[in-house]
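Hey, I'm writing a tutorial for new members on how sequence and structure tokens pair up, and I'd like a real worked example in the thread rather than a made-up one. If someone can provide the structure for the chain below, I'll link this post from the tutorial.
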Amino acid sequence: MKRVHLIGIGGAGMSAIARILLSQGVEVSGSDQRRSSVTEELASSGAIVSIGHNEAAVDGADLVIYSAAVAESNPEIIRARELGIEVIDRAEMLGRLSAHFPVRVAVAGTHGKTTTTAMTAAVLEKGGLDPTVTVGGDVVEWGSNTRVGGSRIFVTEACEAFRSFLKLKPSIAIITNIEADHLDYYGSVNSIIDAFRQFVENIDSDGVIAACADDDCAIEIAKSSSRRKVFYSTEDNNADVFAAEMSVQSSAPSYELVCGGRTLGSIRLRVPGVHNVRNSLAAAAVGIQLGVSFDDIAGALAEFRGVGRRFEIIAEHEGVLIVDDYAHHPTEIRATLSAARFYGKRIIAVFQPHLYSRTRFFAEEFAESLSLADEIFVTDIYAAREQPIEGVAAQDIVKYMNPAKVQYVPDKSEIAEILLPKLREGDVVITLGAGDIRQAAIDLASAFSGVVSTSVQSPSKS
């Protein structure tokens, strides 16, 4: 395989594959709808990147890979098939890449995959295991979503959307939680659970499932498999890996790590919330399985600064904190806003709904979760891959909320102007959503302080 062409090369998952292929000496080309810091970085690393989709771009390629955001009608896909070039999706390529590694760690679950993957990588890296890693967001320490290692270990986020994770054959799998999501594709929670059941059956027969014992569905799926299980928990002190004496009443949670009934020592995190304690337990569980010492586990978790768009601090000025978060599901919003409470007196949430289908399914639940904030601003829906659904709008969320707390602002570009006069010391402003709402946080930070404290760039969505 001399040349691989990636359609949507600037996307999070696709750029990770491109970086790994480049590290292996493969000639890489790709296209994307828009220029970004990611496409520029890939071009400087040796990839041939074209902006816009042109059928001639695939000429001479041995393999064409496309992301889930790319339609089958894309001219490059059509041309590749006319030429008899093999065309596969991103998930298939990820499965092929990982298959070359004897130890394959896959992190699955409705919520927490990205942070847990990055934490697991940090633990293994600190333990000297030098893993190759792909993550769904930019890891602060790497400035990228990819780490190319030199060992036999591969760690990846395993996304359940479109059953993509079924292309993976892990030797160790983490299951963080299982909940209703992607219902436009799955149709029901039972269908999602069935997909996870298939996923764990893809694990090596002598492999391991690390499952969160705080989640009933994760327990059910793990117990349905014949693979060896390791349960981790913040609630069940009988779990194999347990957070004892947990304190989350600050921006830096702490706990005593207990493994097999034996207290190993103290863990302190730099990322807030009970959900991040659970994420860290999963990472610790995998580290223990692979022989990482407690000191290295504790050191890695203490140093871990997070992932881009996961409670990412955009700016802090005159006692006001401006944060961006990828939360786009009611459960994720609830966890993020609960964690934010330790940072400020007043929480201002700016939510951009992601997908018309998700808005239709969860409008009332979104309203309930957002109500944890003191003031809420809701923008128009970010459609992503979908066409508008008649009768579905952002106002479907707003109508379930206290009118005194919520304001509908269709255009996100107006957020900074609206919020500037309102800000006071002790405020935490959080932009929430999987679309392009991060720009509103950057605009607000620039207008308020003139300083944006992060250099992490969000990849293109194509």
